[in-house]
Specification:
Helix content: 10-25%
Structural class: alpha+beta
Distance between the termini: 20 Å
Number of strands: 20
Strand content: 25-35%
Order of helices and strands: HEEEEEEEEEEEEEEEEEEEEH
Number of helices: 2
Shape: elongated
Largest sheet: 3 strands, antiparallel
Strand order of the largest sheet: 8-7-11
Radius of gyration: 27 Å
Length: 261
């Protein structure tokens, strides 16, 4: 009774889909979060007759006879479309308008990449993420700075107390990838490079198709609650339909068992 196992694979697939919807909805308010969706593929087929099988010396079958064995999840595709920009008026809140990622350094010394631009100043004046990871290239903001300005092309300037001129303290860079969908999510709004994503290509904002920066803004999650709710309903109905197939197959097996009584 192939239907039992085929329907079971469908139930497993829809469970994975619901898990993904739950993850998207849980991060609807996560800064810089990018929604994902599960990709599926059909399984192998048991082929009884191939198309084109000869039926006579001059004829052949126009179609074949094969039975599919269900489905499975094969990948998670991430949507890197831009989220809405939300004004915060925070001098160290920075959003990327367009393509690209901020580069930070993890405690193990390895780089990681993020779209979440909610930065802070640590005890040494370094520009860091909420987890304390420094932004690359490192930027140190003087302790006596009274105001900070960040231009669209990444130039960070500070007004120093007692000085009339503005002092440039560093330049932010943006990293781009040939295939952003190939980045590996690490959690904490961070992504890691893989062979599928290609190496990071860093440069000034606004150059080589990189996005520009917007100071005083953060990028919201690109999750659509309505879209995710629709996906959840469709998954629930598909799960229910597959469970009914399991019950139907069970009833058919019960009828077979009754034949020998």
């Amino acid at each position: 009774m192939r239907a039992l196992f085929t329907a079971a694979s469908g139930m497993n697939a829809q469970q994975a889909n619901i898990d993904n919807v739950a993850h998207n909805l849980a991060n609807v308010n996560t800064t810089g979060f990018k929604k994902a969706h599960i990709e599926f593929e059909d399984l192998v087929y048991q082929e009884t007759r191939t198309p084109g099988t000869p039926t006579s010396t001059t004829g052949e079958t126009p179609i074949g006879l094969e039975m599919g064995l269900g489905t499975r999840a094969v990948g998670t595709s991430r949507d890197f479309s831009a989220g809405n920009l939300r004004s915060t008026s925070g001098p160290l809140d920075i959003a990327i308008e367009g393509d690209g990622f901020f580069q930070i350094t993890r405690p193990n010394g390895m780089p990681a990449y993020t779209r979440a631009g909610a930065f802070h100043r640590d005890a040494q004046g370094l520009l860091v993420t909420g987890e304390g990871y420094p932004v690359e290239p490192q930027i140190t903001i003087p302790a006596n700075a009274t105001s900070i300005s960040i231009s669209k092309d990444g130039i960070v300037s500070a007004q120093i107390a007692g000085q009339t001129s503005v002092q440039q303290v560093g330049t932010l860079e943006i990293a781009t990838f040939q295939n952003p969908a190939g980045l590996r999510p690490l959690g904490g709004n961070l992504y890691d490079v893989t062979t599928a994503s290609g190496e990071a290509e860093t440069g000034a904002p606004g150059t080589d198709a990189r996005g520009t920066l917007a100071q005083g803004f953060l990028e919201d999650s690109n999750v659509s609650v309505v879209e995710e709710m629709v996906n959840m309903i469709l998954s629930q109905r598909a799960y229910e339909a597959n469970s009914r197939v399991v019950r139907a197959a069970d009833e058919m097996l019960a009828q077979v068992n009754n034949l020998v009584r």
